[in-house]
């Protein structure tokens, strides 16, 4: 109880300033959310909860504006500001995550709810299953990505140095993640397993693929590690279509992403053909 009293006193004395600073830097460049301070402050003084939330919101808005100004003054590539650099990465991240979520959630829900039996009764081949799940997921990923891109028009002027590369990598990236989602949905028996697959594999590989930074800014060891991540090549090739500049050749990225999709597609088709976890 004595320790708790000291902690409450510490929060009351410095918590508000800490909350303001943390909310400001988090919306600019710092990855730690202000909730770590906001929640204890609200619990220690419930009557001031709305006041703390308002301060946190105002500091976040100010920090976001500061980050926007800072991003427009920093160039990642020659003539490419940081804000403009972020746009392709954010769009591609949305495409990838939604393509994976669509195929994985569709099949795991069908398995758990028992509605998959109605699909099994149809004369559809395993190829038809594959095209249906992957194709619909690609469409969802592209639609969401287009929506995100439209929103970013308010913050950065778009460039289209090589539109065909944009379309090609968007399709390949969405297809690869949709196929991975199909495999994950077939493997998982419950939503917890699906969440683990997404949170510990898909999300880290997406965030560590150069969405928010150029790998040229990393030490040599971490550059090598990044080159082992196939997600990096999807985003780097997609970004090349906007700026005509990238960390590696788009042809190299195309080859790696294409081979990765062929490999996971072969596995997914095999699982569907053998009825892995869907015929019992």
Task: List descriptors.
280 residues, mainly alpha, two-stranded antiparallel ribbon, 11 helices, 76% helix, 2% strand, globular
Question: How does this model look, in words?
Answer:
It contains 11 helices and 2 strands, in the order H-H-H-E-E-H-H-H-H-H-H-H-H. With 280 residues, the protein is an all-alpha fold. The protein has a two-stranded antiparallel ribbon with strand order 1-2. The model has no long low-confidence stretch (mean pLDDT 83).
Helix count, per DSSP?
Answer: 11
**Gap between N and C termini:** 56 Å
Widest sheet, order of strands: 1-2
- Rg computed from alpha carbons, rounded to a whole number of angstroms: 23 Å
- Number of DSSP E strands: 2
Order of helices and strands: HHHEEHHHHHHHH
Which range does the strand content fall in? under 5%
Low-confidence segments: none
Helix amount, in percent? over 70%
Query: What kind of sheet is the major sheet?
Result: 2 strands, antiparallel
Give the integer mean of the pLDDT values.
Answer: 83
Shape: globular
What would you call the structural class?
mainly alpha
Summed up:
This protein has 280 residues and is mainly α. 76% of the residues lie in helices and 2% in strands.
Give a topology summary.
Layout: H1 2-26, H2 35-44, H3 49-73, E1 75-77, E2 80-81, H4 82-113, H5 116-120, H6 126-152, H7 163-187, H8 191-207, H9 220-227, H10 230-243, H11 250-274
Antiparallel strand pairs: 1-2
Helix pairs in contact: 1-2, 1-3, 2-3, 4-6, 4-7, 4-8, 4-10, 6-7, 6-11, 7-10, 7-11, 10-11
């Amino acid at each position: 109880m004595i320790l708790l009293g000291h902690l409450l006193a510490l929060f009351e004395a410095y918590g508000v300033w800490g909350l303001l600073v943390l909310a400001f830097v988090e919306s600019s460049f710092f990855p730690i959310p202000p909730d770590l301070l906001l929640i204890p402050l609200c619990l220690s003084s419930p009557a001031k909860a709305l006041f703390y939330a308002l301060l946190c919101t105002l500091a976040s808005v100010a920090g976001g504006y500061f980050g926007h100004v800072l991003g427009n003054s920093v160039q990642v590539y020659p003539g490419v500001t940081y804000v403009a650099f972020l746009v392709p990465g954010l769009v591609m991240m949305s495409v990838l995550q939604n393509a994976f979520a669509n195929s994985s959630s569709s099949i795991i829900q069908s398995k758990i709810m028992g509605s998959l039996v109605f699909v099994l009764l149809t004369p559809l081949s395993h190829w038809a299953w594959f095209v249906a799940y992957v194709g619909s997921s690609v469409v969802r990923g592209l639609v969401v990505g287009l929506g995100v891109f439209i929103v970013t028009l308010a913050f950065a002027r778009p460039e289209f140095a090589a539109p065909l590369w944009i379309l090609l990598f968007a399709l390949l990236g969405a297809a690869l993640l949709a196929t991975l989602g199909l495999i994950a949905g077939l493997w998982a028996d419950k939503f917890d397993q699906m969440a683990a697959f997404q949170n510990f594999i898909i999300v880290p590989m997406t965030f560590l693929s150069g969405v928010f930074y150029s790998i040229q800014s990393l030490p040599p060891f971490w550059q090598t590690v990044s080159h082992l991540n196939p997600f990096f090549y999807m985003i780097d090739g997609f970004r090349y279509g906007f700026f005509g500049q990238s960390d590696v050749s788009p042809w190299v990225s195309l080859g790696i992403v294409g081979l990765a999709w062929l490999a996971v597609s072969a596995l997914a088709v095999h699982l569907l053909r053998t009825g892995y976890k869907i015929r019992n």
